[in-house]
């Protein structure tokens, strides 16, 4: 009798464990779709395409809208997808800024940043990241696979526009993480400097933060759910989220980098800028923009933003 009860207890325990595993795996696939599959995201505010004169970046956005753009294309670094970019030349300049959009943004959303660099005398090359905008792709990579695409864009630029180019890599939000991750790669000497605005320390850190902020998820079940999500990401996208680290890549960087972050950023928390800043090995500066929310430092402080970027880059790009 005791043996039968013991056997039933074990069977019940195994069934409960299996049900919990199925539940967590299902939740993992749900959150993978929310986080990594392109599409409309309820947690992102929809940006109006109407440009209002009250917009502090009105002139920059109007300039971009009216400016002719060349269309450039390459295959992704893994040769799976066709990638799309805008190229806007500045006279006969030998300086080019590669401008990297954020999560679910496109090259068309980066017009004010193209304008900023154009005002500083740069050509701009602004790609749609894989699976965003006009670029092909199945999943959003949060900067990790995209870093290799950026390196390929650099090579294509030099091949097409000349080896005398001086290249700056600029990124916003996910694009900023992409820029920092790219900085740890072996790059051509023509890459002179980086500017990152509100990038995260690692993909896993950002996913865990979003789980807490967007879903009010406590430590459990955040663990093990994020680990399961990371495992699914490894199968689908090719990497564990903890390995996609801006901090680890910055440890390998010796080029100059300007770090910008809004003091009121709750989406990529402001505190993340400090480990990133401390990790890099090259010349560096940091500016925490007072009162700025996520990716709003330029619109909050347009003159100061431009001055900071211009002054920093003038030291390294001649």
Structural features:
single chain; 318 residues; alpha/beta; eight-stranded mixed beta sheet; 11 helices; 8 strands
A few lines on this structure:
This protein has 318 residues and is of the alpha/beta class. Helices cover 44% and strands 16% of the residues.
Walkthrough of the structure:
- The protein is 44% helix and 16% strand.
- The protein is an alpha/beta fold.
- The protein has an 8-stranded mixed beta sheet, sandwiched between helices.
- Strand 3 (95-100), helix 3 (111-119) and strand 4 form a beta-alpha-beta unit.
- The mean pLDDT is 93.
**Arrangement of strands in the largest sheet:** 1-2-4-3-5-6-7-8
Globally, the shape reads elongated
Rg over alpha carbons:
22 Å
For the record, give the distance between the C-alpha atoms at the N and C termini, rounded to a whole number: 87 Å
- Helix percent band: 40-55%
Beta-strand percent range: 15-25%
Question: Which SSEs are present, and which pair or pack?
Answer:
Blueprint: H1 2-36, H2 58-66, E1 70-75, E2 82-88, E3 95-100, H3 111-119, E4 123-127, H4 144-161, E5 166-172, H5 174-182, E6 191-197, H6 203-215, H7 219-236, H8 246-250, E7 257-262, H9 273-279, E8 284-289, H10 297-300, H11 302-314
Parallel strand pairs: 3-4, 3-5, 5-6, 6-7, 7-8
Antiparallel strand pairs: 1-2, 2-4
